[in-house]
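ok so dumb question maybe but i'm new to this and my supervisor (M.) told me to 'just get the structure for Group II intron, maturase-specific domain' and walked off. so i did the thing. is this what she meant?? sequence i used:
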Amino acid sequence: MLHNSSSLLFVVSNGSLGRTFGWRLRSFLQRTLKLIVNRDKSCVRRADGAESVGYEFRGYGGKVCVSEKKLRHFKQRASELLARKGGRSMARRMSEFTQYARGWIGYFALEQRKSVFTSLDKWLRRRVRACYWKSWRLPRTRIRKLKSLGVSHDDAYAFGASHKAVWRLSMPSGVQRALSNDWLNSNGLFSLEARWRELAPLRRTA
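this is what came out, is it supposed to look like this??
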Protein backbone atom coordinates (compact mmCIF):
# COMPACT_ATOMS: atom_id res chain seq x y z
CA MET A 1 0.00 0.00 0.00
CA LEU A 2 1.24 3.48 -0.79
CA HIS A 3 1.20 5.95 2.06
CA ASN A 4 1.61 9.25 0.20
CA SER A 5 -0.67 12.00 1.46
CA SER A 6 -1.75 14.19 -1.45
CA SER A 7 -3.61 17.48 -1.77
CA LEU A 8 -5.70 17.90 -4.92
CA LEU A 9 -7.01 20.96 -6.71
CA PHE A 10 -9.82 20.41 -9.23
CA VAL A 11 -10.20 23.41 -11.54
CA VAL A 12 -13.57 23.39 -13.30
CA SER A 13 -15.95 25.60 -15.25
CA ASN A 14 -19.11 23.99 -13.85
CA GLY A 15 -19.40 23.64 -10.09
CA SER A 16 -21.83 20.69 -9.87
CA LEU A 17 -20.05 18.62 -12.53
CA GLY A 18 -16.75 19.45 -10.93
CA ARG A 19 -17.85 18.17 -7.53
CA THR A 20 -19.03 14.91 -9.11
CA PHE A 21 -15.74 14.49 -10.96
CA GLY A 22 -13.78 15.34 -7.83
CA TRP A 23 -15.63 12.74 -5.78
CA ARG A 24 -15.03 10.04 -8.41
CA LEU A 25 -11.35 10.88 -8.75
CA ARG A 26 -10.80 10.86 -4.99
CA SER A 27 -12.56 7.51 -4.82
CA PHE A 28 -10.32 6.11 -7.56
CA LEU A 29 -7.14 7.36 -5.90
CA GLN A 30 -8.09 6.06 -2.49
CA ARG A 31 -9.72 2.74 -3.36
CA THR A 32 -7.83 1.68 -6.47
CA LEU A 33 -4.40 3.27 -6.03
CA LYS A 34 -4.54 3.16 -2.22
CA LEU A 35 -3.40 6.77 -1.92
CA ILE A 36 -4.30 8.96 1.03
CA VAL A 37 -5.95 12.18 -0.11
CA ASN A 38 -5.78 15.12 2.27
CA ARG A 39 -9.39 16.33 2.26
CA ASP A 40 -8.58 19.50 4.20
CA LYS A 41 -6.16 20.63 1.48
CA SER A 42 -8.16 19.39 -1.51
CA CYS A 43 -10.94 21.32 -3.18
CA VAL A 44 -13.05 21.80 -6.31
CA ARG A 45 -13.40 25.36 -7.57
CA ARG A 46 -13.48 27.60 -10.60
CA ALA A 47 -10.20 28.52 -12.23
CA ASP A 48 -10.17 32.25 -11.49
CA GLY A 49 -8.37 32.83 -8.20
CA ALA A 50 -7.50 29.19 -7.56
CA GLU A 51 -4.03 28.66 -6.06
CA SER A 52 -1.84 25.58 -5.80
CA VAL A 53 1.87 24.77 -5.30
CA GLY A 54 2.89 28.41 -5.62
CA TYR A 55 0.85 29.13 -8.74
CA GLU A 56 -2.50 30.83 -9.09
CA PHE A 57 -4.95 30.79 -11.98
CA ARG A 58 -6.54 33.97 -13.28
CA GLY A 59 -9.44 34.66 -15.59
CA TYR A 60 -11.96 32.33 -17.20
CA GLY A 61 -9.28 30.39 -19.07
CA GLY A 62 -7.17 29.93 -15.96
CA LYS A 63 -4.00 31.79 -16.98
CA VAL A 64 -1.07 30.31 -15.03
CA CYS A 65 0.65 32.90 -12.81
CA VAL A 66 3.12 32.95 -9.95
CA SER A 67 1.21 33.73 -6.76
CA GLU A 68 1.71 37.12 -5.14
CA LYS A 69 2.92 35.39 -1.99
CA LYS A 70 5.72 33.67 -3.90
CA LEU A 71 6.71 36.91 -5.63
CA ARG A 72 7.03 38.64 -2.26
CA HIS A 73 9.05 35.73 -0.91
CA PHE A 74 11.39 35.90 -3.92
CA LYS A 75 12.13 39.57 -3.30
CA GLN A 76 12.72 38.93 0.37
CA ARG A 77 15.10 36.04 -0.31
CA ALA A 78 16.91 37.95 -3.07
CA SER A 79 17.45 40.89 -0.71
CA GLU A 80 18.91 38.54 1.90
CA LEU A 81 21.29 36.90 -0.57
CA LEU A 82 22.48 40.21 -1.99
CA ALA A 83 22.86 41.89 1.41
CA ARG A 84 26.30 42.69 2.74
CA LYS A 85 26.81 40.08 5.46
CA GLY A 86 29.99 38.53 6.76
CA GLY A 87 32.21 40.55 4.45
CA ARG A 88 31.08 38.67 1.33
CA SER A 89 32.23 40.15 -1.96
CA MET A 90 29.71 41.24 -4.58
CA ALA A 91 30.94 38.42 -6.81
CA ARG A 92 30.07 35.86 -4.15
CA ARG A 93 26.70 37.48 -3.46
CA MET A 94 25.90 37.44 -7.17
CA SER A 95 26.89 33.78 -7.41
CA GLU A 96 24.71 32.75 -4.46
CA PHE A 97 21.78 34.73 -5.81
CA THR A 98 22.19 33.21 -9.29
CA GLN A 99 22.08 29.71 -7.84
CA TYR A 100 18.84 30.52 -6.03
CA ALA A 101 17.29 32.40 -8.98
CA ARG A 102 17.99 29.57 -11.44
CA GLY A 103 16.12 27.12 -9.26
CA TRP A 104 13.28 29.57 -8.67
CA ILE A 105 12.73 30.41 -12.34
CA GLY A 106 13.06 26.74 -13.24
CA TYR A 107 10.13 25.95 -10.96
CA PHE A 108 8.03 28.93 -12.03
CA ALA A 109 8.81 28.73 -15.75
CA LEU A 110 5.12 28.04 -16.47
CA GLU A 111 4.27 31.66 -15.61
CA GLN A 112 2.71 33.08 -18.79
CA ARG A 113 3.31 36.81 -18.27
CA LYS A 114 6.66 38.15 -19.46
CA SER A 115 5.92 41.40 -17.63
CA VAL A 116 6.39 39.65 -14.27
CA PHE A 117 10.03 38.87 -15.02
CA THR A 118 10.66 42.21 -16.73
CA SER A 119 9.49 43.92 -13.55
CA LEU A 120 11.56 41.64 -11.31
CA ASP A 121 14.68 42.24 -13.41
CA LYS A 122 14.15 45.99 -13.10
CA TRP A 123 13.80 45.67 -9.33
CA LEU A 124 16.91 43.46 -9.15
CA ARG A 125 19.03 45.94 -11.09
CA ARG A 126 18.06 48.69 -8.69
CA ARG A 127 18.74 46.42 -5.71
CA VAL A 128 22.20 45.49 -7.00
CA ARG A 129 23.06 49.13 -7.76
CA ALA A 130 22.14 49.95 -4.17
CA CYS A 131 24.40 47.12 -2.96
CA TYR A 132 27.36 48.43 -4.94
CA TRP A 133 26.68 51.97 -3.77
CA LYS A 134 26.54 50.88 -0.15
CA SER A 135 29.72 48.82 -0.47
CA TRP A 136 31.64 51.87 -1.70
CA ARG A 137 30.69 53.63 1.56
CA LEU A 138 32.87 56.78 1.59
CA PRO A 139 32.11 59.78 -0.66
CA ARG A 140 35.64 59.83 -2.07
CA THR A 141 35.36 56.14 -2.98
CA ARG A 142 32.01 56.71 -4.67
CA ILE A 143 33.34 59.69 -6.61
CA ARG A 144 36.39 57.73 -7.75
CA LYS A 145 34.30 54.71 -8.78
CA LEU A 146 31.79 56.82 -10.71
CA LYS A 147 34.54 58.63 -12.60
CA SER A 148 36.26 55.34 -13.44
CA LEU A 149 32.97 54.12 -14.89
CA GLY A 150 32.61 57.09 -17.23
CA VAL A 151 30.54 59.58 -15.21
CA SER A 152 31.59 63.21 -15.68
CA HIS A 153 33.60 64.98 -12.98
CA ASP A 154 30.69 67.25 -11.96
CA ASP A 155 28.10 64.46 -11.84
CA ALA A 156 30.45 62.17 -9.94
CA TYR A 157 30.89 64.81 -7.23
CA ALA A 158 27.16 65.62 -7.18
CA PHE A 159 26.13 62.01 -6.65
CA GLY A 160 29.15 60.81 -4.70
CA ALA A 161 28.84 63.53 -2.06
CA SER A 162 25.06 63.25 -1.76
CA HIS A 163 23.52 62.38 1.60
CA LYS A 164 20.39 60.84 0.12
CA ALA A 165 19.41 57.31 1.13
CA VAL A 166 21.07 54.44 -0.73
CA TRP A 167 17.82 53.17 -2.28
CA ARG A 168 16.99 56.62 -3.66
CA LEU A 169 20.48 57.06 -5.09
CA SER A 170 20.25 53.73 -6.93
CA MET A 171 17.87 55.38 -9.42
CA PRO A 172 19.45 58.71 -10.56
CA SER A 173 20.75 58.82 -14.12
CA GLY A 174 24.39 59.28 -13.10
CA VAL A 175 24.43 56.08 -11.07
CA GLN A 176 22.48 54.25 -13.76
CA ARG A 177 24.95 55.37 -16.43
CA ALA A 178 27.85 54.11 -14.35
CA LEU A 179 26.20 50.85 -13.33
CA SER A 180 24.38 50.31 -16.61
CA ASN A 181 22.35 47.23 -17.46
CA ASP A 182 25.17 45.94 -19.68
CA TRP A 183 27.74 46.53 -16.93
CA LEU A 184 25.62 44.67 -14.39
CA ASN A 185 25.10 41.76 -16.79
CA SER A 186 28.82 41.55 -17.54
CA ASN A 187 29.49 41.44 -13.80
CA GLY A 188 27.26 38.45 -13.22
CA LEU A 189 23.72 39.71 -12.65
CA PHE A 190 21.30 36.91 -13.55
CA SER A 191 18.38 37.86 -15.81
CA LEU A 192 15.09 36.20 -14.96
CA GLU A 193 13.45 37.33 -18.20
CA ALA A 194 16.27 35.93 -20.34
CA ARG A 195 16.09 32.58 -18.57
CA TRP A 196 12.28 32.58 -18.84
CA ARG A 197 12.63 32.97 -22.61
CA GLU A 198 15.07 30.06 -22.74
CA LEU A 199 12.55 27.88 -20.90
CA ALA A 200 9.75 28.63 -23.39
CA PRO A 201 9.61 24.97 -24.61
CA LEU A 202 8.39 23.96 -21.15
CA ARG A 203 5.35 26.19 -21.52
CA ARG A 204 4.52 24.79 -24.94
CA THR A 205 4.55 21.20 -23.69
CA ALA A 206 2.95 21.73 -20.26
